[in-house]
Every structure is written in structure tokens, then in C-alpha cells.
Amino acid sequence: MNRDSNQNKPQSKSHFWTISVVILFVIACSYWALYQIMQAETSMRYTGLQQVVSAKIGKTISGMELSATNMFNEVEKNLDSPQSAVEALESESHLNPDVRGYFAAFAPYYFKEKGQWFEPYIHQNDSGEFVMSELGPTGRDYSKSTWYIQAEKTRQPFWCDPYYYYDGSSISGHYCTFVKPVLDANGQLVCVCGADITFEWINKELQRIDESCREAEHYGNHRLMRDFNFFSVILYKDGTCIAYPSEKHIGITDTTVINRLANSETGVTEILVDGVPSTLYYGPIESVDWSVAIVTPTSDLRKPFLYSALLMLLLAIIALLIAWKLCKKNPRSI
Hints:
The chain has about 325 residues and is of the alpha+beta class. Helix content is about 45%, strand content about 20%. The protein has eight helices and twelve strands. The radius of gyration is 31 Å and the shape is rod-shaped.
């Protein structure tokens, strides 16, 4: 009796190890297949989200461009006197309260009675009302500004580089400006018109879009255990952040990523956000030299992978325990 029991021990161990190898192989293959599916789901979810945010902010910017172009066309129709040009600016400014201010920087001595520099600027004050200022008479030679030179050279509308404007007044701040040259019947530059939007406005608009995406049914459901605590940023082509949550500090230093941003390419990169490892999905905004990036903590991104691995490990342990008991209990029938 003892001899049979001793003979069964090596046999049960042999069966157990054979079954263990099969179980581990099946579990490993199952996790590999699940891993590939989750990788595809993660890429599609966050790349798709980036494209949605990019499209929405692009639509908002395009709408602002259209509104500004309509105003500039009104200025172009009213070039017979300084007063008519100013009235054209004033008559259209209230149609788009998202714009901080509109200006028309006229060519030197275009209106001789106004002197060399004439730049009417209608802008919102602290209470949100539009007021008119004339920046030209202060003697600022705006014809040497980058935006004026580019408009004179290209004769095409464009977004100028983001900048900080300071004059000690309430209009000081970080701006992006949509610029359009206005030409006369002979093709000569009459003035350069611009519509200013602030970084603060862009940031609020981006946060509004983020919230709408979080509340959307196809993003809010089936999170696969993620908290989905992403946020969006807008990046300039040199890697500078134009819009981002005030409590976050985003810095793009990877030259490869900066080159891809400059070439309006899409991609994924790993960065540190306030010391937290994060994943950044980026892609261009149509018609603007900016990119939208979705930033999410890498730990949140990887939760489905971690929990799936733990589940597979638990299943493997349970299967091995069952196999061990079966082999130990009835080794000859295994």
C-alpha cells in the first residue's frame, strides 16, 4: 500500500507540472491577446479624443476668423476718412465678444491729418465694454513690427506668433492675433487689421471643450477602470504652451517632439507634469500653427493593463491550485 502511494507521488508531480505549463501558456497567450486589444483601445480612445478637441477648438477659431474678416471688410469699404474707418471698427466689434480688441494700423501718412502713425484700437475694458483708443499718435513705429512686415510681404491673412503686450494699462497681457492686410484698388497696402484674443480666453474655451467631452456618453461610459482625469493644452510650433490649466506646468523640451509640432505632425510622447509621469497625445489644429495635446497620467492610462494582469494572475493561481488538488487526489485518472 505504501509502495503504491510512493509510486503515485512522482506521477502526480509529473502530471501537475505538465498541466501547470499548459495553464501558464494559456494564461500568457490570453493576456497577450488582451494586451493587444487594450493597446488598440487606448490609442483609439485618446487619439480620437485629441482629434475631437482639435476639431472643436479649430471650429471656434475659424468662426472668430470669419467674424474678424467681416469686420476688416467693413474697414476696407470705409477708407475715405479716419472717422469712417473708426466707425466701421465700432459698428462690428459687439458681434464677437470673445475678441479682446480690433485694430487697424494704417500705412504711414495714409490720412495726412492723422500724421505718420494712425492705429485706432477698439477693445474691451475691465467691465467688458468696448472703448476706443488711438495707439498711433504715441509715436510707436508699428511698421517695424513683425506682424506688420509679414502682412506687407505675404498680403495674406495669418496668425502672428503669441506675444506679451504691456503698456501699463488693463489691456496688457498675453495675446494671439489674427492679422489681415487691407489693400487698395491698386494693390497697395493701406492698413494691417488685427483681432486680438487672450490666452485666458483660449484657456476657458479649452476647458469648456474638455468638460463637454467628459460628459459625452461615448467617452463617459466604458472607462475600463480609468478615472479619465485628462486635460487639454494648446502648443505652439516651438513647444510653448498657449493654453493649459493654471495649476499645471507643462514643458516640452524634446527636440524631436518640437520638430514634429513645427511640421504639424501627430504623435505620442512621455513627459513629467509637476513630477507626475504623463502621456501626451498631440496633433495639429487645421489652418493654425498650433497643436492640441491630450495629457493624462500614465498610471491612469495603464490601469486596465494592471488590473487585467492581476486578474490573469489570480486565475492562474486558482487553476494551479485546482490542478494540484486533482493530481494529488487521483493521480492515475489525470
